[in-house]
Amino acid sequence: MGSLWEEFNRLGTEMIVTKAGRRMFPTFQVKLSGLDPSADYVLLMDFVPLDDKRYRYAFHSSSWLVAGRADPAAPGRVHFHPDSPAKGAQWMRQIVSFDKLKLTNNLLDDNGHIILNSMHRYQPRFHVVLVDPRRDSERFAHENFKSFSFPETQFMAVTAYQNHRITQLKIASNPFAKGFRDGEPEPW
Prior knowledge:
The protein is an alpha+beta fold. The protein is built from three helices and 14 strands. Strands 1, 4, 7, 8, 12, 13 and 14 form a seven-stranded mixed beta sheet that branches. Strands 2-10-11 form a three-stranded mixed beta sheet, with no helix packed on it. A hairpin with a 4-residue loop joins strand 5 and strand 6. The two termini are 36 Å apart.
């Protein structure tokens, strides 16, 4: 991943979850190599809880504290990259961005967003799946995928930012947050 993820990770990354769904920032992006250029691949992501705990933020110490056992896990979902399936050559040509992925806390979500519990820690996982053209491909399913986890992408799901340093870094780094930055207002 990139240095932006590492910068957020040092502070304790937080990701907003809303009923309607919110895009992740930083966006999850990968550069792929080593794929068969002529084979088809599906790229997808899922999110797994990092532990069985619920947290609260202690403002006086600017730290996360365990507040009890985790809420029941939300229904597990995966997010398929919208360009899937595509040839290995296409995936390797440029950085692959999961910029359409949205996080929600709505257990009844019917938009395909990733459902997460607020105040819980998560690890995004990235999966590359070979589309096997063989008729009996299910026999080889265990050979046809590779999963990746990047520790610097771990985050706390929140409904509002708790750590003011995360808020400041998101405003400073996110091109869609320019309305929150100090300075001259932009003309209409």
